[in-house]
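Chapter summary example.
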Amino acid sequence: MDSSIAAVPRHTDDYNASYRDNVWLGQFPLDHQSVLYYFAGSPWYDKSCNNEILKMQRRPLEHLQGMTGIEYELQPNEAKQLPQVLYVIHKKNRTSPRTANVMAVYYVLDCTIYQAPNTYTLLTSRLKKCSYRINKAFKALSAGVRFSPTEGYAWDFSTEESPAPVIPSEQLAAKLKRKYEKEEKIKQNSARVDSILFGLIKKVPILAEYAYDHAS
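The structure predicted for these 216 residues follows.
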């Protein structure tokens, strides 16, 4: 292994956590000059970073470019917020004065610190939510599928509620009505099957001869 290649520092993401220190906020104002000090109390802050080394040496952050390793950099207020309520902080791995790779992005919104998700995590989360909704829709649709040999596939999303109690005479009338409707439906299905068979016999003459021979 080439010893000239610096090892990539270990890094752990935590997109579900947030940090807010009301005690610190009660003692100091939060602005672009103090936000990095506020961030230093969060669980994402690496105590071995170059910012911490410069702080112990009482040296300004301008010396970060001359060092190598982990550093935290506050991004400029491009939106020109007044007063500023959103701060963006980059965690970088500096390998040279001109090269620093971004490892993570954090933001401070209304005095609460969060880690911003990367593109892969964001897309994965959105795709999982879409997949869940699509599966739920397919299950709802499959519950309404009905199939009959004579009528084919159909949709039926009606729900049968619990019937109200009825007196014996009404119950008998309802039973006779259901029986009549069932018989009528059987007749309609039989007529439809006969119609289909007659149509096939007309289209295929050999079937007509076969039916005539067996009928005689």
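To summarize the output: The longest strand covers residues 86-96.
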